[in-house]
Write a structure and sequence with these properties.
With about 100 residues, the chain is mainly alpha-helical. The chain contains five helices and no strands.
Amino acid sequence: MKAVLNKHDSARSYYKELINIALNNGEKMDYCIAVHQLVMVERMANCYDEALKLFHLEAKLLHEYDIESPLTLFANCYKLVYVALLTGNFVLAEQLMNQSF
């Protein structure tokens, strides 16, 4: 909600705190979810480079933690492509789309 209200710094702080809590408690799925939500904040703040960096982290974590359900993989890929398109990186967007099939 804070990101929707353009309170991006507050939203970042909130999700970074959730990331730390999840890491400290060994909650892998919660960690992935919090990273994903932080990505959304960065995207909404038009911080596309940071969003892409975090999307790649999320994809790595999903694979590393063996949390590779079709829905989570699709959501990650879709949003990676979306941010690549927003930044005008059409080559990356196409590569990601081709990898998803």
